Amino acid sequence: MSQQFDVIVIGGGPGGYIAAIRAAQLGFKVACIDEWKNAKGGAAPGGTCTNVGCIPSKALLQSSEHYEQAAHHFADHGITVDGLKMDVAKMIARKDAVVKQNNDGILYLFKKNKVSFFHGRGSFVKADGGLYEIAVAGDKPETLQGKHVVLATGSNARQLPGAEFDEKQILSNEGALAVTETPAKLGVIGSGVIGLEMGSVWRRLGAEVTVLEAMPTFLAAVDEQVAKEAQKIFVKQGIKLQLGVKIGEIKKAKKGVTVNYTDAKGEAQKLEVDKLIVSIGRVPNTNGLNAEAVGLKLDERGAIVVDDDCKTNLPNVWAVGDVVRGPMLAHKAEEEGVAVAERIAGQHGHVDFNLVPWVIYTSPEIAWVGKTEQALKAEGRAYKAGSFPFLANGRARALGDTTGFVKFLADAATDEILGVHIIGPFASELIAEACVAMAFKASAEDIARICHAHPSLSESTKEAALAVDKRTLNF
């Protein structure tokens, strides 16, 4: 006989496992189904983020940053390092250990919150009498029944036609995180978050990195002033950026990959690399969900169609995260997961898409929330701008990293903060203050009047807020 649940969550990534835990906290009997496996075939919940995305990429970025500091910057601190070596295999092993800690942590949270976990692929069988029958295909096949179903099946890397992933020479994010030795030459197609982060890892470890981008502008979604600064810095670091290219034939050989492309001038070019990372976006994952069995509506991209509350076209079926509209970000999925669980409980779950922060974990880090300056110009909205360079910040000088700046955009009439953009050290942490301030409709003046610790990088946030009114104190 099928086990019955109040809520069945398909997918154990950030949106799914958080939805399951919050639903359990609200008193529901909850099941979560996830098929990720570790190297030994065991359960590895956490989705793309934990297994081949956010977490492992940050582990490799940290390791490679340590190596770069030791190789090029420790001497500035009076530290001499002789015989510096990089053990890539050990770096990858550490990354794998960090991933496993996160997998195990999620399994512990399921147990703590009394969420029943099923290891396998979940799919619809039928809808019957107000319940949905869900099959779990895995080592221990199961059939479950649930009143509510939350779909959190995530996304997959988009393949480039003619350059399908083999994860040995042509790599998605998954293969890029498992390279066992530093390639002499690395090509990256796409200058998005994944491409830049992975390019940064292997550039620091000695690879010659070339990034090919189809768009004529670099980081088009980022504030233009920040994007220009980032481009200048990445080129100075040694990453070769080719913008406005058109990719042609890609050929694999025994020892490398050749990319034929047309550059921005219309001239034919050829790039020969040892490995090629293809990072041209991601597509919603509804493979094997058997959506047609229950009439679940998908759009032309294969995404699950939902309304503003994450409701699908089916009663009591919800969807969150990468598999629906909106930014493909782990923290956006988490917020939707919590909101859906609360809506199922009759509460008023809420997600403000205008306050979702974005981060690129390169060096320097890039983080932003709210409107860009070009977006405000396009809207015709009157605004004021203020910025402050880390070069004038005492803590940044002590860190030895004075790259970049903090930039505030505020309404010209009301002074309400409309956007904050940061490029520089620990931007991923500093952006949180902006998110909180904007959630409470704060003005730039509010931030400018709040006491910030000295010496701290956060003083640059205060000074940028002061700069909106043209009254910085330290620049």
TrEMBL record:
Q: Name one Pfam family in it.
A: Pyr_redox_2
GO MF annotation: an example: flavin adenine dinucleotide binding
> Which Gene Ontology cellular component terms are annotated?
cytoplasm
Q: Name one GO biological process term.
A: 2-oxoglutarate metabolic process
Cofactor(s) recorded for this entry are: FAD
Query: How many cofactors are bound and how?
Result: Binds 1 FAD per subunit.
Looking at the record, the residues that make up the FAD/NAD(P)-binding domain are 5-337
Catalytic residues (UniProt): H454 (proton acceptor)
Enzyme Commission identifier(s): 1.8.1.4
Disulfide bridge map:
C49-C54
Residue intervals of the Pyridine nucleotide-disulphide oxidoreductase dimerisation domain: 356-465
Q: Keywords in alphabetical order, please.
A: Cytoplasm, FAD, Flavoprotein, NAD, Nucleotide-binding, Oxidoreductase, Redox-active center
Q: What else is known?
A: The active site is a redox-active disulfide bond.
Q: What is this protein called?
A: Dihydrolipoyl dehydrogenase
Write down the species: Aquabacterium lacunae
Q: What is the lineage of its organism?
A: Bacteria, Pseudomonadati, Pseudomonadota, Betaproteobacteria, Burkholderiales
